[in-house]
Amino acid sequence: MINSDIFIKELFKNDISHLLVVPCSFAKGLINACINNSNLIQYIPCASEAIACSVASGLVMSGKKPIVIIQSSGITNMGSCLTSLTNPYDIYFPIICSWRTYKEGDSEIQHKHLSINLCELINSYGYKFEKLNPRIEDALNLINESFSKKQILLINKETFSSCELNKMHSVNLSEYPVRSSYLISLNKLINFDKSFVCIGTTGNTSREMHSIMKSSSNFYMAGNMGGALSLGLGSALAGKRIIICGGDAEFVMHLGGLSTSGRYSEKLFIVYIVFDNEVNKSTGGQNTYQKHINYLNLAESCGWNVNNKVIKSLIDFEKQLKFVLKLKKGLFFFMLNVIWIKNSQDLHQ
Ligand SMILES: Cc1ncc(C[n+]2csc(CCOP(=O)(O)OP(=O)(O)O)c2C)c(N)n1
Fold it and tell me: Which of 304, 310, 295, 296 is nearest to 329 (CA)?
């Protein structure tokens, strides 16, 4: 096992300049160590793996030494960047990728295919793969040679030691309601009305919905991060009344879904509820660092009807939702501040 804190300091000594990250719980220790030491190496949270890869390319082209950290489920998102930018233009940088395993009944379905086919996929992108050796010197060698070799460095759950995030970097949302209380209230308001289909985004939102909202016509998506809104758009185009519940990190991964759906504001019924807990709770609680985003303005400018403020209480939520659920058509965007419960039983991804 590599000591995450020591490793970050060694990376700094090796002139690594930036870590571009879409979190995975396997890399949580390394990510936390990087955030704790962001005075040494700049931590760049990325909305998607495609973005991480393009930003890293720009950094390399400008003389910097970045490292990308992602989860195997996100390697497909990088495909275009790898095959049409880094490969043809010979741009090299280390990509650390957690290799998610799959065990029937114990793992999320999203990991099934790549648990077997990851290496083949990497090769098909024109890359080689190496397992990141748990000896620090070997790992550093692999990192350094990745600046002149197209290779992806695979890690498992045990590669990096855990590392607590310093208090100054953790998020405190204690004054907000818990997400599950909103979901209970949503379930009550739709009252088993089968004309509504609720869709949950990957991670803890779907898991909570599954335990709170049992309706079999709902769909709780474990995977396809960033795609819940577009999935809902498809069902709405087919005539369904859609309610999407999702996280703030999921929301930004494929933001284009907002502009595509906005075109149909007069014709379809979709309610999109974003639960902003300011973190990637499902992968270990890393801050999303998205305070700069005005979600409501963004949705409005894409053609969605928005509340004029972020919802912070259950009473407000129920009042607004009751009104909207009576309507026949329209795209309605709700932004809610929620807290996550630290000790809830969740399966980190
Ligand atoms: C393409 C892809 N990249 C990364 C992941 C790993 N992942 C799963 S859930 C998640 C974070 C979700 O955060 P958010 O949407 O804010 O919801 P929360 O977990 O906070 O409830 C990440 C990064 C993934 N499943 N798929």
Answer: 304
124 C-alpha to ligand 1 centroid (Å): 25
CA of 335 to the centre of ligand 1 (A): 18
Residue-wise pLDDT for 175-207, tens only, equals 888 999 999 999 999 987 889 999 999 988 999
Q: Are strands 95-98 and 66-71 parallel, antiparallel or unpaired?
A: parallel
Mean pLDDT of 114-142: 95
Query: Of 167, 187, 202, which residue constitutes the final position of a domain?
Result: 167
286 in ligand 1 pocket by Cβ < 6 Å? no
Residue 32 reports pLDDT greater than 90:
yes
| Residue 348: per-residue pLDDT | 47
Would residue 346 count as lying in a domain?
Answer: no
Q: What is the CA radius of gyration of the chain?
A: 21
Q: Ligand 1, residues 71, 207, 339: which to mutate, most atoms within 8 A of Cβ? A: 71
Tally the domains of the chain.
2
Return the bridge partners of 151, or none. 128
CATH no. for residue 161? 3.40.50.970
9 plus 133 within the same structural domain = yes
Same domain? 161 vs 197: no
10 and 158 co-located in one domain: yes
Q: Please give the distance, rounded to the nearest whole angstrom, from the Cα atom of residue 267 to the centre of ligand 1.
A: 30
Q: Taking the alpha carbons of 153, 74, 284, 39 in that order, is the dihedral positive or negative? A: positive
Output the CA 219–ligand 1 centroid distance in Å: 17
**Interval 33-64: pLDDT, tens:** 999 999 999 999 999 999 999 999 999 999 99
pTM (two decimals):
0.93
